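Amino acid chain:
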Amino acid sequence: MGLKEYLKVDLDGNVLDVIALDPEEDEIPENHFTGWGDRSFYQPIWDFDLGDWVEGLSQEEIDAINNRPHNPSPEERIEQLEAVILQMMMEG
């Protein structure tokens, strides 16, 4: 089968490390789990009761991340400055 990625978690389910193991040849250590596939998490946490990955952040924390102000990239800042300079030149 070949190597597969496993995530080592602490007792709270937080990811500590990533290792590659061959499940057909290697013994999978305790607290090592395969990834969450194509699901998306801000802070993945292993839920030992569910036996699955869950979101570790609250909805309020996710909203704060999604609603924080956008910092323009250097390219966007240059475009903004060029527009201001062009406007100043046009106004004379």
